[in-house]
Structures are given as C-alpha cells and as structure tokens.
Amino acid sequence: MDLKFISAIGLNPQEFLLLMKDTKPVLRSGVPPGNSKNIESLCKEFGLYFLKKRFDDSMDKQFYISKSRGLPRKAYEAERQENKKEIGRLLGYPECCVNSFLNYRTKSNSKIPMIIHTFSKTKGKPSFYTNNIFNSNGRSSNINQKLLRNKERLKRHNHFLISHIPCSYNCKKSIEIGTRTLRLMKQEMPEFASEVLSSLRRVFIVFDEFEFVALRGKINKNEVRYSDPIVVNLESKTEKALKQGNRIVRGKDKIEIFKDKTPIYTIKRKDENHGVVMDFT
Ligand SMILES: [Zn+2]
After folding, report:
1. CA separation for the pair 216, 63 (Å, rounded)
2. Which of 31, 90, 164, 266 could staple 26 via S-S, CB 3.0–4.6 A?
3. Whole-angstrom Cα distance, residue 198 to residue 15?
4. Cβ(64)–Cβ(50) under 8 Å?
C-alpha cells in the first residue's frame, strides 16, 4: 500500500489503514482541492465504495468511503439527519466517547475548552494513545480559523492514533484503537509511526483549545525539565522564553520559565483551566 501517495492526495494514512484492516466501517474525509479524481481512482483500485456529498450548505463536500456497498450512503444519511450516535458508530468511534462528546456539546460546560474538559475526566496518567491535541477533528467548530492555520500545528495535524475525541485521556476503548493503529502503522509506515510518537509522547501545557506547548520533558512534582518545545499559538514573548529555557515551575497562579536556575519569564494563569500540565510521556 503506497501510504505516501494516500497522504499526498489528502486522505489520512492511518485512517485509511484502519478502513482497510476492518477497524473502521466508514472513512469520512473532506475533498482536498484538486484531488477528487485521485481519491476516486484509489477507491476503484482497492475495490472500495464511495459517495461524494455535501450534507450541509455551509460545508464543503465530503467523501464517505467503505468496503461495504451500503455504508457510504448510510453514513451520509446519518450525518444529514444529525444522527450523531449512528455516524459515530459507522466511523468506528467508541460509544462512551460519542456519548460524552454529545453531552459536552449540549451542556453549558462547553465554555471550558474541550481538551481541558477531557483532561478533567481523566483519572490517573493520560495515555499518549488518546492524545488528539494536534488534530482538529471535532474540536474546531467554534474556533477562530487562524488558530488552526498555525504552522507548527499544520505540520502535525495528522499526528494522532485515534481520530475521535476521547471521553477521557485514558478511555480503555480509545487506548485499544490507538494500540491497534500504532501496530498497523509500525508495520506499514514505520517512519511516520515514529514521527507521530515523537509528537504525542510529550508533556503538554495547555492554555486554550489550540493554544499550547508540547515539550520533550520529564515532570518531577511541580517542575518540568524540558527541551525541544513545539509552541502553538502562544504570545511571542512566551514563545521566545520557552525556546530559551529548559525548566518550568508550575504554581497555582503562575507558570515560571527558567534557564537552569535563572528565571526568564512568568506566565500568569487566568484560572485553573489556563496553563494545565498534561503528561502524555
Ligand atoms: Zn471513551
């Protein structure tokens, strides 16, 4: 399977693998500019059924691709009727995660960023298998699009092992899917697998939905020793300090950045949901 080609025509290679290996009944994807014909011929080559449809006027067209003849239409109809549980099932998402997503969307707690909400539901250490922080699937609807276009994020937008929003960062079903995805990726595209892992197995400090830093680091109590920060949508002063520093001390009201013992910069935390440290190592 030429996964580089699959990626080049705008499909997500790990999702395509899951579809081909019967873990995902339907693959849903936007229609990448100029690649519609390529995707159609790919489907023909692999004997896949597809439907290309717009389900809502505000959206671009989407591809629904499946190994089963009836499923692309079923997925499209479910989406059009806003039958979210059915669409979740067809896309291979765990029921616990679909329910928790719907709950979040209908409740007032949706003012809390989705990542922070998911983290608050996590008991114990978060699992990198469930880390979907670089991926915007399902998290981007109320977001300023400029944040999504951040270069560092765009470079890694397909760095994930699950394509849904987990109900927590150690949801068992999501870890199962992530484990399977990683195993398949290691077989079929080992280089991409290690690239993805090096983005996901990090300490994240999250300020808002698409405003965070991902560090190669180790946490010891309130301190993170780090290198190689990936800075996404933080103020330039903060970004500069993070790149100069190698140590962070987190407090209740502030996050301090140090270079060894020298303090460089302090970030004030607006509240408990701002500057949340998540250990995905
Ligand atoms: Zn779940």
Report:
1. 36
2. 90
3. 19
4. yes
